[in-house]
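Model it.
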Amino acid sequence: MFKEHRDKDGDGKLNQEEMRDWIMPVGFDHAEAEARHLVGIADDNKDGKLNLDEIVAHYDTFVGSQATDYGEQLQKHDPAEL
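Modeled.
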């Protein structure tokens, strides 16, 4: 994977541009991907929506989600620093 997709210039290491492309690929929406992931896991009746029972039943999934972790990280910073 590294040689074929990440190390675009073939020098055996990732430069700043290659790292940026890996971490923040163009055209990839991290929030949408996480939302689709959560719905895919918790949508027990497969109607494409989450109801209260599904959310409660999969509470642990939402608590461990990257989406909820982002909010947690924001609370750890001093607003004056942002």
